[in-house]
Design a protein that fits this description.
This protein is an alpha+beta fold. It contains 12 helices and 8 strands.
C-alpha cells in the first residue's frame, strides 16, 4: 500500500525545478594552460628571415614625446606571413581602467605554444567624442600585440638606440613650426629631398669603389678588360673634390648638412632671380654633364660634388624629358 503524502495548505508548495545557478563568470586560462609549450616553438630559417626582415624606415612613426613606433597592423602582417593563421592573441583578464589609461593583459600563442605576455595600454578620456571606451580597449589590445612580438625579433630596430638616433636625423624634426618643441615626422617633400640626396651619395660611393677596384687590377687582367668604363662622379669643368682619405663620405655622415645646404641653395636662387622652372632645367642639364650650357648655374658657384649632388636632389629623377633643354639653344627658357 502506497503512503499518501499530504501537505499543509498553510505552507507554500516548493518548486520541483532545480535552483537557478549563479551567473557564470567569464573564464580565463590558468597558468598551466597559458604557459603550455613555452620555449617549444620551432621555426625554420625561412620563417626567421620573415620575422627578422629589416623594416621600411618610411613606415616608422614618431610620437610627440620622441618615441618611435610602427602600427600594430605591421606586426600582425608579419605574423600572418610567417605563421599564416596559426597564431592567437589570448586575453589574460578583463581590461582595467586606471585613471585615464586602459590596461589589458594578453598572451601570444603560436602553433599551440606560448610565446610571450604583455600588458597593452591606451589613453581614454570620457570627454573625447572621437575615441570611445571600446576604441581604447582595442588600442590596448593592439599595443599588447606589438609588445608580445619583441621575443620574435620583429622590428627589433625600434629598440636599438643607434637606429633611433639615425632615423630621427633623417625622418623627424623637433621644435619650431608651431609644434611647441615636440617631435613630428618630416613633411613628405622634405623626406623625399633628403632621401634623394642620400640615394645619390650611395650611387656615387658605389661608382667610386668600383673605380678603385678597376684601378687596382693589372692592365692585362681579363676582368679589367670586361669591365665597362665608370662615368665620372662630377660634372666637367668643376674642381676636383677634396678627399680626406680614400674612403668616400658615407650617406649617414651627410644627413646633418642637408637642411643648411638646402637653405643656402634657396637663398642663392632668390639672390640671382632664378625661377623654379629654370632651376629644374639647369639641374637636368647639369646632371647630364653640361654645366657650361646654362650660365645661371655658374652664378651659384657650385664648386664641389657634394653640393652638386644636393642640387640634383631638388628635382631628383622626377624631372620629365620635356624639361630637358638642348645645350645648343642658349636662349631657351
Amino acid at each position: 500500500m502506497t503512503d499518501i503524502v499530504t501537505t499543509d495548505p498553510s505552507q507554500p508548495v516548493e518548486s520541483a525545478q532545480p535552483p537557478v545557478p549563479e551567473t557564470q563568470r567569464e573564464r580565463y586560462w590558468g597558468a598551466e594552460e597559458i604557459y603550455k609549450g613555452a620555449g617549444e616553438l620551432e621555426v625554420d630559417d625561412a620563417t626567421m628571415a620573415i620575422l627578422m626582415a629589416p623594416i621600411d624606415e618610411s613606415m616608422v612613426c614618431i610620437r610627440p614625446d620622441g618615441i618611435v613606433y610602427l602600427p600594430w597592423a605591421f606586426f600582425a602582417d608579419r605574423l600572418r606571413k610567417a605563421f599564416s593563421l596559426s597564431w592567437a592573441l589570448v586575453a589574460g583578464d578583463k581590461p582595467v581602467l586606471e585613471g585615464n589609461q586602459v590596461i589589458w593583459l594578453h598572451h601570444l600563442r603560436i602553433r599551440g605554444c606560448y610565446v610571450a605576455s604583455a600588458y597593452g595600454q591606451c589613453n581614454y578620456h570620457a570627454n573625447n567624442r572621437g575615441m570611445s571606451y571600446g576604441d581604447s580597449i582595442e588600442g590596448a589590445k593592439s599595443d599588447a600585440l606589438t609588445r608580445c612580438c619583441k621575443p620574435l625579433g620583429i622590428a627589433a630596430e625600434l629598440w636599438d638606440p643607434a637606429f633611433i638616433r639615425e632615423w630621427k636625423k633623417r625622418w623627424a624634426e623637433s621644435g619650431g613650426g608651431g609644434y611647441g618643441g615636440k617631435w613630428r615626422k618630416k613633411r613628405a617633400e622634405d623626406v623625399g629631398w633628403d632621401q634623394a640626396f642620400l640615394n645619390r651619395m650611395e650611387t656615387m660611393n658605389r661608382k667610386y669603389f668600383r673605380q678603385k677596384v678597376v684601378e687596382a687590377l693589372p692592365e692585362e687582367a681579363p676582368s679589367k678588360k670586361a669591365l665597362p668604363e665608370v662615368a665620372p662622379d662630377r660634372a666637367p669643368n668643376s674642381p676636383e673634390p677634396e678627399r680626406v682619405s680614400d674612403t668616400p663620405l658615407h650617406p649617414s655622415e651627410c644627413a646633418d648638412d642637408l637642411r643648411s645646404l638646402k637653405k643656402q641653395i634657396k637663398t642663392e636662387m632668390g639672390k640671382h632671380g632664378i625661377k623654379r622652372q629654370q632651376w629644374r632645367q639647369a639641374l637636368k642639364i647639369a646632371s647630364e654633364g653640361a654645366v657650361h650650357a646654362f650660365p645661371d648655374l655658374d652664378k651659384l658657384g657650385l664648386d664641389n660634388v657634394k653640393a652638386l649632388l644636393a642640387v640634383f636632389a631638388l628635382s631628383g629623377d622626377q624631372v620629365a624629358e620635356k624639361l630637358v633643354i638642348d645645350a645648343n639653344e642658349p636662349n631657351a627658357t
